[in-house]
Amino acid sequence: MLFGAVAFLLIISGTACHKTNTTATGTFRFHLHSNIDTNEIADSSFLYRDAMGRHFSLNIPQFYISGVTLVNANGTNYTVPNVYILKTLDSEEYLIGTAPVGTYTSVIFNVGLDAAANTGQPSGYTAGSPLAQSSMWFGNTTKGYMFMKLQGLADTTALQTGMNPVPFSYEIGSAANLKQVTMPVRGSGSYSSYTPYILTAGSTQYIHMICDYGKLLSVVNFSTQDSTDTYNINPTLATTIANNIPAMFKYEQ
């Protein structure tokens, strides 16, 4: 009987040492709109008017998002692991991942890729992965990925007649142009009317944002600055555009 009692205690003791993680979680997703000022881009060939009165189109407006951190109202941050998103014109909804339940007031993210991802190459990822896109790669692991790629047509006439628009192409990358975006705190100050994200067990919260390419490209003179590829063609322009990346994002609601 003594042996049986000891065995029973050992079993109970062993069970107590292996606790199951019961932290409740929900899911976050981005819902991202591609805009030129207040105009959502519905036709990639149409010349939209921005806040400066310029007219331009975008047939390729895309960029990487990584390093997503959710800001909790209790003062803590939660970084969602392994988030790599390629925002394109054709899609608006993107999975961020799961997070512990709670009330979240802001989101912080990078436009671009961390060093580990940027030194990889598209062939090293499975088809369908955001990082498997060779069109977003400069062609070698030294230069890495294009963090942002923009192509379109711009009206460069003084009267903005829309006649004979000229092409532009901006391919922006490199560790120096990785930009962090910190969105405003919802439910306080100027954003007191913006409801925080209340994440409950099994629920999904959408972070609705507008990506305003008119605001992003407000620093560009289409007549004289029609191209950059960060490394060879006008690298100063790539830096100028990259520095304006945080200004392009705002909450939709």
Radius of gyration: 23 Å
SSE topology string: HEEEEEEEEHEEEEEHEHE
Strand content: 35-45%
Number of DSSP-assigned strands: 15
Q: Kindly name the structural category.
A: mainly beta
Largest sheet: 10 strands, mixed
Unreliable spans: 1-17
Task: Please bin the fraction of helical residues.
Answer: 10-25%
Shape descriptor reads globular
List the helices and strands and how they pair.
Layout: H1 2-16, E1 25-36, E2 39-40, E3 48-49, E4 55-72, E5 77-79, E6 84-87, E7 93-100, E8 102-111, H2 115-118, E9 146-154, E10 166-173, E11 179-182, E12 197-199, E13 204-212, H3 213-216, E14 227-228, H4 235-243, E15 249-251
Parallel strand pairs: 1-13, 10-14
Antiparallel strand pairs: 1-2, 1-7, 3-4, 4-5, 4-6, 4-8, 4-9, 8-11, 8-12, 9-10, 13-15
Which key features would you list for this structure?
38% strand; mainly beta; 4 helices; ten-stranded mixed sheet; 253 residues
